[in-house]
Amino acid sequence: MKLLKSALPILMAIVLSGCLSQKPSESEREELSNAQYESYLRHAVFGTMNMETEDPATTRERHLEYFAIVSGSYEIAKLIYDEAVKYNIEPELVFALVFNESSFNPRAVNQNSNSIDRGLFQLNSRSFPNLREEDFFKPEINVPLGVAYLRYCLDMGGNEVTALAMYNAGPNRVKDSRTPRMTLDYIHKIQDYKLSLEQGIIPAEFNPPVIPVPSSKSVKNITLLMEQREKIN
Questions:
Q1: Active-site annotation holds for 75
Q2: pTM for the full predicted model
Q3: Spatial separation of the C-alpha atoms in residues 149 and 169, rounded to whole Å
Q4: Which residue of the set 38, 61, 101, 134 is catalytic?
Q5: pLDDT beyond 90 at 138
C-alpha cells in the first residue's frame, strides 16, 4: 500500500499532465477532480478515435463510449452511430442534429399548425403517414428513418448546409427559395455543435444527465486512479 501511495502521484502526473502543488480545500478539490475526470475521459475516448492502426472493433467501441457521453445513453448512441456509419454520414453531424431536434429525448413532441414532430429525429406525421403514433417514439424505428431521411437530404441538396435546410424546412420550400430565417439559425447551431464534437468538446447545452461507465480498459483505469486520488488526498 505504501508503494502504491508513493507511485500514484507519478502516475497521476503522467495521466493528468500535472498535479496541484498545494493541497486544495475540500470543495476546491472536488470541483477540480470532477473537471479533470470529465476532461480526461473525453480525451481518452475521443483522442484515439482516428488512429489508423487501431483494431476496428476497438475503434468502434471508443466511438460509442464518446457518443454515449454526448447523448447520455449508450443504447441510443449505438443506434445513431451505427446508422450514421451505414449511410456514410459523419456521426458528429447526426448527433448534433438529434440534440437540436430532441435533446436525445425519445418521447419529444412538437406540435405544428397542421402536423406533429415526434421522437429523437422529430419525424413529421405528414412525412411519415404510415407510422403508428407509438412507433415514432421507438428509437429502433425512429433512428433508422431519421438517418435515412438525412442521407436523402444530403444527396438531394448536394452539401451539408442545403441538406440541413431541407431537413428542417422541407425539400420543396428550399428548392423554391422559401427557406425561413429560423432555418438559417437552425443550420448555424447544428454546425457549431458538430464542430465542437469533432474537437472532442461536448457543448455545455448538451449537459448529459448521466455519464455512462466506460468499458474501455484504459478509461476504467483512469476512473480507478481518480478514486484512489480522492482517498489519498
A1: no
A2: 0.73
A3: 13
A4: 101
A5: yes
